[in-house]
Specification:
- This protein is of the alpha+beta class.
- The chain has one domain: Glutaredoxin (3-Layer(aba) Sandwich), CATH 3.40.30.
- It contains five helices and nine strands.
- The strands form two sheets. The protein has a seven-stranded mixed beta sheet with strand order 2-1-5-4-3-8-9, with helices on both faces. The chain has a two-stranded antiparallel sheet with strand order 6-7.
- Helix 3 links the parallel strand 4 and strand 5.
- The N and C termini lie far apart (about 50 Å).
- The N terminus is likely disordered.
- Keywords: Membrane, Transmembrane, Transmembrane helix.
- InterPro entries: SCO1/SenC, Thioredoxin-like_sf.
- This is Cytochrome oxidase biogenesis protein Sco1/SenC/PrrC, thiol-disulfide reductase involved in Cu(I) insertion into CoxII Cu(A) center.
């Protein structure tokens, strides 16, 4: 029982720390955008919606082993989440929410592509990702690549991640990471983000209003 208590405490602390860090990182990005938007005569965004300097070009390998870039996703909205397949609870929980939201969206779901960027490319090979994403939704795309590629795309989304300093057997470590869900439009531009744990009904309602 003491061991379980320690594990639970570690996961709670990890979730609180990474969620807070992710919100701070995104806020910094949005504040930076507010400054540039005012310079160019545009109105700053409020809340979790609007146009901001989030996202951008990337190169990666999808879960089928195919080389892809942001251009392969143009023309559809993207729901973007960062995580890793060995994540014990946050990642599978959020991916289940995404899947449920898409199911609730009905016919409009064909206009949305859910994308899962790994922040643990050392373990998350295309083969590993293929088995993982199949557990959630038929349209979910898993993306991996080199450490540099994944770090670059995470930086573009103001996503924090790092390997946990907790002692663990080789290959059995945890990753700290922020857990926001991003909605990008058909041209790869930021539309809004959802906090971790936002109910699928709320996400589906928001998508219904946004998607034409």
């Amino acid at each position: 029982m003491p061991a379980m208590t320690t594990v639970l405490r570690r996961r709670i602390n990890l979730a609180l720390k990474t969620t807070a860090f992710g919100l701070v990182a995104l806020a910094v990005g949005l504040l930076a955008w507010v400054g540039t938007s005012q310079y160019f005569g545009r109105s700053p965004v409020g809340g979790g919606e609007g146009t901001a300097n989030v996202g951008g070009p990337f190169t990666a390998i999808d879960h089928t082993g195919r080389a892809v870039s942001e251009k392969d996703f143009l023309g559809r909205y993207m729901l973007v989440f960062f995580g890793y397949t060995s994540c014990p609870d946050v990642c599978p929980g959020e991916l289940q929410i995404i899947a449920a939201a898409l199911d609730l969206l009905g016919a409009k779901a064909v206009k949305v592509r859910p994308v899962f960027f790994t922040i643990d490319p050392a373990r998350d090979t295309p083969e590993v990702l293929a088995k993982y994403v199949a557990n959630f939704h038929a349209t979910l795309v898993g993306l991996t690549g080199t450490d540099a590629q994944m770090a670059a795309v995470a930086k573009a989304y103001y996503v924090y991640f790092s390997r946990s300093e907790d002692i663990a057997p080789p290959g059995d470590y945890l990753m700290d990471h922020s857990s926001l869900l991003f909605l990008m439009d058909g041209e790869g531009r930021y539309v809004r983000h959802f906090n971790y744990g936002t109910p699928p009904e709320e996400i589906a309602t928001a998508l219904e209003k946004i998607i034409q």
